[in-house]
Write a structure and sequence with these properties.
Shape: elongated
Order of helices and strands: HHEEHEEEHEHE
Structural class: alpha+beta
Largest sheet: 4 strands, antiparallel
Radius of gyration: 17 Å
Strand order of the largest sheet: 2-3-4-5
Number of strands: 7
Helix content: 25-40%
Strand content: 25-35%
Length: 166
């Protein structure tokens, strides 16, 4: 699916009918950037997980005044952001693209390689009664492994076009 205000004819004129990867290829994304005045932020793997019953598998503390780059970024792209922390990491949930519930997490460098990312990704499923989406940079192999191990299923990929930096 392509959600952008450029007109169906414009899109169809640039995409072959038989190439499912064309919407994420650089030539088409470059045309979209030029047409919309926006920039491709990243091409992410898109995953989805069902909510999980019961308490999270790790003790988390909800915070309301988190001054952290991951939280600041979340507030730029999501609404209704909530943040929980634990020693060595944080998890946040908010409403993103199309109102879907999205998760992001961060593991401190000193805590990496010990399964905390997987635990936080799993914990997020206990924090909301809604299906939970995660966008993951495919090059971040540790994050991909953590979300897959926590039960998130690959659904596709997406490119988010954002306004250029001011």
């Amino acid at each position: 699916m392509i959600f952008v205000d450029v007109g169906e004819d414009w899109i169809r004129s640039r995409l072959p009918d038989d190439d499912l990867s064309a919407p994420l290829n650089p030539p088409f994304l470059g045309d979209l950037e030029e047409r919309t005045g926006r920039k491709v932020n990243n091409i992410d793997m898109l995953t989805l997980a069902a909510p999980a019953a019961g308490p999270p598998p790790i003790e988390l503390v909800e915070v309301t005044d988190a001054a952290h780059p991951r939280v600041e970024r979340a507030h730029r792209y999501r609404d209704d952001v909530r943040v929980w922390t634990c020693p060595g990491g944080l998890v946040l949930i908010g409403r993103g693209v199309g109102g879907r519930w999205e998760v992001a997490l961060e593991v401190d460098p000193a805590g990496r390689g010990r399964g905390l990312g997987r635990t936080l990704a799993s914990a997020a499923r206990h924090l909301t009664p809604h299906p939970l989406w995660a966008q993951i940079a495919p090059g971040n192999a540790a994050s991909v492994r953590a979300f897959l191990a926590a039960g998130y299923v690959p659904i596709g990929a997406e490119a988010l076009l954002v306004p250029p930096p001011a």
